[in-house]
Amino acid sequence: MTQAAQIIVDVPTMQTNRPYTYMIPTDLVDAVVPGVRVSVPFGKGDREVGGMVVGLINIDQDLEHDAVYQGDLKPITRLLDLVPVLNEELLALSDWLAQQTFAFRISTIQTMLPTALKTASHKWLVADQAIDNDELARLFDAQGRLDFTATTLSESQVKALARLQRLGVVHATYQVNNRAQVKTNTWVTSQLNEAQVTEKLASLRANATKQRRVLLALSRQVAPQPLAELLTDARLTRADFTAAAQRGWVKMTEKEVYRDPFAQSEVEQTTSMMLQPDQQQAVTAISQAITANQATTFLLEGVTGSGKTEVYLQSIAKALAQQQTALMLVPEIALTPQMVKRVRGRFGAQVAVLHSGLSAGEKYDEWRRIERHEATVVVGARSAAFAPLDDLGLIIMDEEHETSYKQSDNPRYQARDVLLWRAKWHNAPVILGSATPSLESRARAERGVYRHLMLPKRINQRPLPPVQIIDMREQLKTRQESNFSAALLTALKQRLERGEQSVLMLNRRGFSSFMMCRDCGFVLKCPNCDNTLVLHMDSHTMRCHYCGHEEAIPRRCPNCHSKRISYYGTGTEKVAAELKQLLPTARVIRMDVDTTRRKGMHEKMLAAFGRREADILLGTQMIAKGLDYPDVTLVGVLNADTALGLPDFRASERTFQLLTQVSGRAGRADKAGEVMIQTFNPDHYAIQLAQQQDYERFFRVEMNLRHLGNYPPYFYTALISASDQDENTAAKKMFELADWLKQRLSSSTIILGPTPRPIARIKNRYYYQIFLKYKQEPQLHDALMQILEESQHLRGLQISIDMEPQNFV
Ligand SMILES: Nc1ncnc2c1ncn2[C@@H]1O[C@H](COP(=O)(O)OP(=O)(O)OP(=O)(O)O)[C@@H](O)[C@H]1O
Ligand SMILES: [Zn+2]
Ligand SMILES: [Zn+2]
């Protein structure tokens, strides 16, 4: 009996999207197992490519059934791993995921591996114990390291080393060949003494404000300090200090940053709290499912501040108590030290944390701790859904409604689906938690597919803060254009006088992509779909992205005939400038993608705000989550409407979710809180119901509208996009496709488009899309596969498929 290996090669094309059969050299027979990476000769000229072993077959019996096999089998060239890097579960998952998302198997496999394993990296073997074989022991240097990538090893040596790794005598580590992985911080050292600073300040021109700020900052501290710290004053920029360096006032140096080894040990140990009755009920139900190994999905719906986290923690404890592991996903933005602290505080060093802030090396370290069963609790963002935990006893997804759980690039997977799949594999329950569940999940709870658990009250009966809606149309009649209503401005002044803090949110979603009447708030909608029309400056038209309807940009408001129609939207920078004028004494921290791009800035700014170094935290959506500061008594939303204008059937849902989240930040401690929402659409149901914080009503109203519009959760959706350098080719192909689909699919399926994409041209490629809404469509998978396969033969045209798309702009 001869064995051969089934290998997915690292050649991402439709033709190669299936296992190829390779011969296993006799010496490697035991070492080649599913889940190890290899390199193999492939294609014309036997180019060497990487690959993943996904299965083994007996040549004598199975080969005639192997469709791919032609001619003599080529042998595997090299073994890259001594032990599998993906286990049986994850291999099966990668296969399922490729099917679900119409992605190549190699790309779903790559998605599951930590970066250190997929980029060009240098592999070392490290001896953890003495090796009792002289020949092998000699391969290791004085530090017990063997350079696996550079050393030529005989096949028997490879086999023997594989055995040692399986026994835990040696382990593999990776050094990523990427200089950028070394983290550095810029430090600023003043070159001026106190007297010189005073002198320079005196000689500055009156309008040299930037230089004055830099000098003032220098006067406060003489010792070298990190630039990032100086930049917590939002009025200062890196460029100001670069300019100062050119003047010889400061020296800027790069220092390497090391991981703080005390960061973990500082976390204070916490113990389980006495649960409130609602919490207790939830924990009991979840615990029963854990004990019974039932893959029940729970929807934990709890208002902001109702103590969902404590329910998670005590349920995790239950899983650990029966020697199982737990996986918890949170949105990237919520992975603040606060959240990590709460989990570490309860479970200590057995917690592994995976987030985008870690370097490739750090991520690999965490991944390995999980694989070696050193970590039994994993907290992480979307990609942590693939954490290689064995024997999962509980899976949690916090803020389950968050769009960031859906990956927008290939493979376009929804982490929630991955978790549900894994739960079935492990017979483990899942908790989907949120104050504002997605309509899809809430509808499933209604139909009994998920079990519904509720936490309807805040802890200690603290009231939800009162929410006031401010009609900006009224404001505009009396005052000149401003981002601040009189009421909000007064409230901000009060907080300043009382020494309390305020949070201001500027909604960036939908920023200037549509038009709105400044007098009546009217937003132009599609006559066919009731979706907001998107402004296309290139063609000077308003377009519907679902059905393709197009019309001229109106000069007057179709509703009130006002001429004051404009792009609605504004940036945080502009708001910060206005704030400076209106409230010159207020200390403001501005938090948006620009100011938080540098690693660690997000946490630094929040920490500074927590230390009360600022009066106002001004930011985009990123401030809506997770903040728990006792002195915040005012939350202001500057523009509640912008997301409502988006050409997205989920626009109301997103708006409601965001407003509810951000309102939940006020009055969490003893001091009462207050929320003010500025809007041009005070009567819109999403805004009205957010004011009342009435999720239940919102759910009913929105479900009704979804039903009328044939949208999810009543219909499933899929988005097919095609792009080409030639606009006609892309359009023509998509019209053909739409016709073909009409014949192929059932008549109950709704095919919208093709239409040009919101940004029709990206990097000189033209995009067209078809939007599908369907209930039951057994033909769909095959039809879409066929489209992908056929598109391979069309040079230049690229087709992508997004199941249950979350983003339309
Ligand atoms: N049983 C309890 N007894 C006393 N305090 C509790 C209890 N459960 C939770 N808390 C406290 O109540 C506060 C709010 O809880 P938590 O942050 O878990 O709510 P949440 O539902 O996750 O809120 P959000 O959705 O706003 O993040 C926290 O400070 C938490 O420590
Ligand atoms: Zn109008
Ligand atoms: Zn339309």
UniProtKB/TrEMBL annotation:
SUPFAM superfamilies from the xrefs? P-loop containing nucleoside triphosphate hydrolases
Subunit annotation: Component of the replication restart primosome.
- HAMAP family per record: PriA
Q: Which residues form the Helicase C-terminal domain?
A: 552-720
Kindly state what the record says about how the cofactor is bound. Answer: Binds 2 zinc ions per subunit.
Question: Which source organism?
Answer: Furfurilactobacillus curtus
Q: What does this protein do?
A: Initiates the restart of stalled replication forks, which reloads the replicative helicase on sites other than the origin of replication. Recognizes and binds to abandoned replication forks and remodels them to uncover a helicase loading site. Promotes assembly of the primosome at these replication forks.
Q: Which CDD domains match?
A: DEXHc_priA (cd17929), SF2_C_priA (cd18804)
Swiss-Prot/TrEMBL catalytic activity? ATP + H2O = ADP + phosphate + H(+); Couples ATP hydrolysis with the unwinding of duplex DNA by translocating in the 3'-5' direction
Of which family is this protein a member?
Belongs to the helicase family. PriA subfamily.
The family database entries (Pfam families) matched by this protein are listed as: Helicase_C, PriA_3primeBD, PriA_C, ResIII, Zn_ribbon_PriA
Annotated residues for binding of Zn(2+) 2:
C526, C529, C544, C547
Provide the residue positions that the database annotates as binding Zn(2+) 1.
C517, C520, C557, C560
Q: Note the InterPro entries from the entry.
A: Helicase/UvrB_N (IPR006935), Helicase_ATP-bd (IPR014001), Helicase_C-like (IPR001650), P-loop_NTPase (IPR027417), PriA (IPR005259), PriA_3primeBD (IPR041222), PriA_3primeBD_sf (IPR042115), PriA_C (IPR041236)
**Domain Helicase ATP-binding: from-to ranges:** 289-455
The name of this protein is: Replication restart protein PriA
List keywords of the entry alphabetically.
ATP-binding, DNA replication, DNA-binding, Helicase, Hydrolase, Isomerase, Metal-binding, Nucleotide-binding, Primosome, Zinc
- Essential cofactor(s): Zn(2+)
In short, the EC number is 5.6.2.4
